[in-house]
């Protein structure tokens, strides 16, 4: 296969491509006798044979690996795996922990927090990248950051990385692989996409991370004179908004998984669109999205935009209902906790489809310049000792 890096610089020395001299003395196996062409005829058989030949002769992939990948229906992904630095498994979890100066449990927790299966102590499936991650965790620990806080942040990063990877995977699957491509053509297109697009995706993620980090540091610097700035128990008065999809559970009971995934991604895109400089998207959780802002009016604007943009999406997105509450909350590792968070979630459940419902504190914080309110009544929520005054929010 063309356009690979120089063999001596290949990211995975154990699976680097052969040089011309090495390939010349390598004998091609009988792929048909090995069962690698079973069930294939005509063009499909030729495409598989071409892919197997190049993987074996040019890339140095051994026969057993080819058989394993073919049995798992991953053969077309193998060229991209090689470009991304796939290597042979070198370490167990126990060995990684020992080399990094961690406990085995810490490394297992790290893998689970990233979003990968929790490994067994003597399972040999890790490489140098995993060792680097373990050593990075150890350096954070040595800096005095509590391990439980590191794991909480890692879960946030892992969850975000999974969504980013899925978005780029979908991009490749829909826009890079040409319709009607055979197995060999799909493999080549995936490899080329990995070579060309992965660096761009990494740069985009790095740019977004740095931009948000700098923005948040500037916000912290503006409040540097506030006592208890870096006290994790310090609370802030904020408005919290939850928006969820009406009937999403019933959709999940009867719809195909692909449809559910499409709806969830559409909700996330709407949530991103309705934010503004004063309002941040905290998270999306399947059928719900959470926004936060210290500016009550800005949050109401975003909450109403949820309904408006959702309606513009038409039948692709089920109706939305939105709940808002205001009060003192605590921010920790990218999430918010406190009474207004719980109350906003419960108010959302009481809202009608395509409506925004808010408590009195949120209404007072937003004011009457841009919004009008309809008294809905008092509602009793489980766990609260007194009823909550609720108002429907509309634009003036």
Short descriptors:
Alpha-Beta Plaits; disordered N terminus; eight-stranded mixed β-sheet; 396 residues; alpha+beta
Q: Can you put this structure into words, describing what you see?
A:
With 396 residues, this protein is α+β, with helices and mostly antiparallel strands. It has a domain at 236-395: Nucleotide cyclase, GGDEF domain (Alpha-Beta Plaits, 2-Layer Sandwich). It is built from 14 helices and ten strands. The protein has helices spanning 20-24, 42-57, 63-71, 78-83, 93-100, 104-114, 128-142, 147-176, 183-222, 248-254, 257-274, 296-312, 339-350, 360-366, and strands spanning 91-92, 124-126, 236-245, 280-285, 288-293, 320-332, 335-337, 355-359, 371-379, 388-395. The strands form two sheets. Strands 3, 4, 5, 6, 7, 8, 9 and 10 form an eight-stranded mixed sheet that branches. It has a two-stranded antiparallel sheet with strand order 1-2. A hairpin with a 2-residue loop joins strand 4 (280-285) and strand 5 (288-293). The longest helix has 40 residues, at 183-222. The protein is elongated and about 80 Å long. 27% of the residues are buried.
């Amino acid at each position: 296969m063309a356009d690979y890096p120089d063999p001596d610089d290949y990211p995975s020395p154990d699976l680097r491509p052969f040089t011309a001299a090495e390939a010349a003395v390598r004998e091609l196996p009988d792929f048909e006798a090995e069962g690698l062409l079973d069930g294939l005829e005509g063009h499909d058989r030729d495409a598989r044979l071409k892919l197997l030949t190049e993987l074996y002769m040019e890339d140095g992939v051994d026969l057993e690996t080819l058989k394993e990948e073919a049995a798992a229906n991953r053969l077309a992904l193998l060229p991209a795996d090689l470009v991304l630095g796939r290597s042979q498994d070198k370490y167990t979890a126990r060995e990684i922990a020992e080399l990094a100066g961690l406990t085995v449990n810490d490394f297992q927790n790290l893998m689970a927090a990233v979003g990968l299966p929790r490994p067994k102590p003597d399972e040999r499936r890790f490489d140098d990248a995993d060792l680097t991650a373990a050593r990075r965790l150890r350096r954070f620990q040595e800096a005095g950051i509590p391990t439980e806080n590191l794991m909480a942040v890692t879960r946030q990063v892992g969850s975000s990385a999974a969504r980013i990877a899925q978005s780029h995977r979908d991009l490749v699957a829909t826009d890079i692989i040409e319709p009607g491509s055979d197995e060999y053509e799909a493999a080549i297109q995936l490899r080329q996409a990995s070579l060309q697009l992965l660096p761009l995706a990494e740069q985009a993620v790095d740019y977004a991370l740095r931009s948000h980090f700098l923005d948040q540091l500037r916000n912290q610097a503006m409040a540097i004179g506030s006592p208890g700035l870096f006290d994790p128990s310090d609370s802030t008065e904020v408005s919290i908004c939850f928006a969820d999809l009406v009937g999403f559970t019933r959709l999940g009971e009867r719809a195909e998984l692909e449809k559910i995934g499409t709806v969830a991604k559409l909700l996330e895109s709407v949530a991103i669109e309705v934010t503004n400089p004063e309002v941040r998207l905290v998270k999306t959780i399947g059928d719900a999205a959470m926004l936060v802002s210290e500016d009550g009016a800005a949050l109401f604007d975003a909450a109403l935009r949820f309904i408006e943009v959702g309606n513009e999406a038409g039948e692709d997105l089920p109706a939305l209902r939105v709940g808002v509450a205001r009060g003192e909350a605590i921010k920790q590792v990218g999430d918010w906790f406190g009474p207004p968070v719980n109350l906003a979630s419960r108010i959302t459940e009481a809202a009608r489809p395509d409506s925004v419902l808010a408590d009195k504190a949120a209404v007072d914080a937003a004011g009457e310049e841009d919004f009008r309110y309809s008294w809905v009544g008092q509602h009793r929520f489980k766990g609260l000792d007194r009823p909550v005054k609720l108002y429907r929010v509309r634009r003036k």
